[in-house]
UniProtKB/TrEMBL annotation, chains A, B:
Highest taxon in the source lineage: Bacteria
Location of the active site: 144 (proton donor/acceptor), 175 (schiff-base intermediate with substrate)
Name of this protein: Dihydrodipicolinate synthetase
CDD domains, sorted: DHDPS-like (cd00408)
Keyword tags: Lyase
Length: 310, 310
C-alpha cells in the first residue's frame, strides 16, 4: 500500500454550507470562518461545493475562485474534497484542474445529471474522459452518488467497480448519498480499501465497522462534535460507548432530516452564531419561515444541538 | 399591440442538433451548415442550445462562443431562440446577456434543475432575479418547461401566469415539452397572445388552432419540410389538408419517439447527409448501435423521411 493511500481522506467530513452576502455572492470571509470552525470542532475534512454548498447554484468561475480564496485564507487544501462535477465534461475538467491547483485532497464528482435514462457505458465514458483530460497523476477522484437529487442518474455498484478497476490510482472512493445501508455495506465488502463515505452520519459507525472511510454529511455542519466523538470512540476500541454516541447522533440527524436541508441548516447556523448573513440563499432555494422554522429551532434546543455544533 | 409583439417568434422551430468534431468540440462550420439547411427547409426559426442541442453538455463559454460564431457565419440572430438556462443564476444572466449581444430573438430558459422539491416562490425569484440582473429592455424570455428532463422541476401554470403578469414586456412565451395537450390548451386559453410553443410537432396544428405560436421540436431536425407544410396549410385556411398533413407528421414523430432522441437524430442525420461527424456525441450520451440502429434506419426509409428532411 502506497504512502498516498495511507494519507487518504478518512473520518468525519462536513458537506460545508456556503455563506452568501447580501448580493447572493459567496461571502469569502464568512466561508473561511465557517470552515475553520468546522475543522476546530473536529471535522477531519470538508466536502466543499457539494449539494449542501449550493455548488450547482454557482458558476464554475465562482466555485473555482471561492475555493482559491478559501485556501488563501488558510484552510489547508489537503483537508478539502471540493465538488467539481458538472453536466458539461469540459467544465468538470476545468473545475478538477482548479481543485488540483488549490491543493485539494481529491475531487467529488457527480455524474452528468441533465439527461435521464443514460447508460452505465455513457457514464463510464464521462468519468474516463474526465480522468484522461485532466491528465494529472495527482488527481484523486471520489464518485458522488445521489440519485434523489440527480433525477435518478446514479453510479451503479458495477460501474463503481469498473472505474475503480480501470483507474485504481485515481478513483479512490465514493460519497454515497442514496441512503441505502445495504448498498454502502456492499461497496465496503466488495472494494476493500476503497474510500467509502456514507452521505449521512446515521451510518457513520456502521460504515467504519464495515471498513469504510467515514461520512460526508450536510448535517455535520451542526453535529460535527458529536460525529467526531463517535469516530474517536470507535478508533479507541470502545464499541459500547461508540454505539451509544451513535444513537444520539442518529437522533439528531433524524430530527433534522424532516426539514429541507439547506434552508434548515442555514437557519440553525443563524441561530447558533447570530449572524444574519446565514439567511442569504440563492434562488430557487428559499428560507424556512413561520411555523416550520419555529418548530425546527425548538426541536434543536430540546435536542441540545448547541453543544454538538461547531 | 406593439410592433415588437407582431414580430414575435412564431411557427415551426427546430430544436437544432449541435454537430461535434472528433474532439467532441462544437463543429462550428457544420453547425452553421445544419442551421442554414433547417431554415432553407422552412423552419421559421431555431431553438439552439436546448436539450437536443446538448447545451447542458457544454460549458457556458462554449455555448456563448458557438452562438457568436453561428451569427458570424450568417445565421440571422432574429431567427434564433438560444437556451440560456443554468442551475446557477449568475450563469443564466451571463448567457442571456451573450444571447442579446448576438441579436437573438429571445432566450429559452429552463428552471434551475438540480435541487428537487423547490417551491413556485423559489422558481419565481430565480426568473425575477434573472430578468432584473440582465436589466436590458431587449430581453424576451421564453420559459422552458420539461419536467421529465429536469427531474420533476417544472413551471406550473400559475407560475407562468404570475411571471407573464409581472413582466409582460419580457416574459413572452413558453416551450412546453411535458407532452400534455390539456396543459398546452390551458396556456393558450388563459394567456391570449402569449407565445405558446408545443415541444413536439404532434401538437403543431392543435396549438396553432388554439391560438398558440407553434412548436419547437427535436424531431423537426428531420421533419422540417412536412411541419412547415402543416403550418402553411393552416395559414392558408385549408383545414382539411392541414389535418391530413398533420396526420402524416404525427406518424413520423410517433415512430421517432420510440428511440433516445439525440442519438437517433444524429444517426438519421448521418444517414441523410453521409457526414460521419454526426456520430460524435459528448458523454453521457452514446450512439445508437446494432439492432435498434438498423431498425430506426429501416423505419425512416419506410416512412420516406428523406423527402421531409432538410
Amino acid at each position: 500500500m502506497s504512502e498516498a493511500r495511507d494519507e487518504a481522506p478518512r473520518g468525519v467530513f462536513a458537506a460545508a454550507l456556503t455563506p452568501m452576502d447580501g448580493n447572493l455572492n459567496v461571502d469569502r470571509e464568512a466561508f473561511a470562518l465557517h470552515c475553520r470552525r468546522l475543522l476546530e470542532a473536529g471535522c477531519h475534512g470538508l466536502g466543499v461545493f457539494g449539494t449542501t454548498g449550493e455548488a450547482s447554484s454557482l458558476s464554475a468561475k465562482e466555485r473555482a475562485a471561492a475555493l482559491e480564496a478559501l485556501v488563501e485564507a488558510g484552510i489547508p487544501g489537503e483537508r478539502l474534497l471540493p465538488g467539481t462535477g458538472s453536466c458539461a465534461l469540459t467544465e468538470a475538467v476545468w473545475l478538477s484542474r482548479a481543485a488540483l491547483e488549490a491543493g485539494a485532497a481529491g475531487v467529488l464528482v457527480l455524474p452528468p445529471f441533465y439527461y435521464k435514462g443514460v447508460t452505465d457505458e455513457g457514464l463510464y465514458r464521462f468519468f474516463a474522459q474526465l480522468i484522461e483530460r485532466v491528465g494529472d497523476g495527482r488527481l484523486r477522484l471520489y464518485l458522488y452518488h445521489f440519485p434523489q437529487m440527480t433525477g435518478g442518474v446514479g453510479i451503479s455498484v458495477p460501474l463503481v467497480r469498473r472505474l475503480a478497476a480501470d483507474y485504481p490510482e485515481v478513483v479512490r472512493g465514493i460519497k454515497d448519498s442514496e441512503g441505502s445501508w445495504p448498498r454502502i455495506e456492499a461497496l465496503c465488502r466488495e472494494l476493500p480499501g476503497f474510500g467509502v463515505f456514507a452521505g449521512t452520519e446515521r451510518f457513520l459507525l456502521d460504515t467504519l465497522r464495515a471498513g469504510g472511510a467515514g461520512c460526508i454529511s450536510a448535517t455535520a455542519n451542526v453535529t460535527a462534535r458529536l460525529a467526531r466523538r463517535v469516530y474517536d470512540l470507535h478508533a479507541a476500541g470502545e464499541p459500547g460507548e461508540a454505539s451509544s454516541a451513535q444513537r444520539r447522533l442518529t437522533g439528531l440527524r433524524k430530527a433534522l432530516e424532516a426539514y429541507p436541508a439547506i434552508p434548515a441548516l442555514k437557519l440553525l447556523m443563524r441561530d447558533l452564531t447570530g449572524e444574519d448573513r446565514w439567511l442569504n440563499l440563492r434562488p430557487p432555494l428559499v428560507n424556512l419561515e413561520g411555523e416550520s422554522a419555529a418548530r425546527l429551532l425548538e426541536e434543536a434546543r430540546t435536542l441540545g444541538l448547541a453543544e454538538h455544533a461547531p
